[in-house]
Automatic annotation (TrEMBL):
Binding site for ATP: K53, F101, R129, T135, R146, N156
Organism, scientific name: Erythrolobus australicus
EC number(s) given by UniProt: 2.7.4.6
SUPFAM superfamilies xrefs: Nucleoside diphosphate kinase, NDK
Signal sequence, start to end: none
Protein name, per record: nucleoside-diphosphate kinase
Required cofactor names: Mg(2+)
Molecular function as annotated in GO: nucleoside diphosphate kinase activity
Keywords: Kinase, Transferase
Amino acid sequence: RMAAMFACAIAAGGRAVFRNPAVLAAAALGAATATASLTAQCAADEQSFIMIKPDGTNRALVGEIVSRFEQKGYTLVGIKVVAPSKELAGRHYAEHEGKPFYPGLVDFLSSGVVVAMVWQGKDVIKTGRAMIGATNPLASAPGTIRGDFGITVGRNIIHGSDSTESAAREISLWFGADEIVSWQQTNAKWIYE
């Protein structure tokens, strides 16, 4: 697993993209071919951290949200129910520390259980954010998760990574390496070219 992650990181110019066992086979190819093949494999296997917040879990929206990501064709490679401590919530929102709304974010995230997930697939970060909708649910389009279920910014149901860097940080914060599985859906050939 580590060799595959390393190969993906090299193909991505040293950035921490994520792994796929198929990259090992690509590494056996010639240098130029291997780099192109690895880059394509890694792009297809991007991972994103998605979290259903306490308002989403308490409103029984977990199944609906998981279904939307599954129906889009993404692969769930990590999931757990967590009752975050204030310390974990603070580390999750570390980029907002010092801002006036930071204490409220930490208090809310640590107020109940969340469902922490890692989803994998092509452009899952960008597409996942589009599926989630704008931070302010009232500005979110109908058909997005926040547009369909949210009303206020403070109770906007879900969090999704906004970049590969934040995905890597958030995944490592919420999951151990042994909690992420590597597998491919049998319907992958019907989703990807």
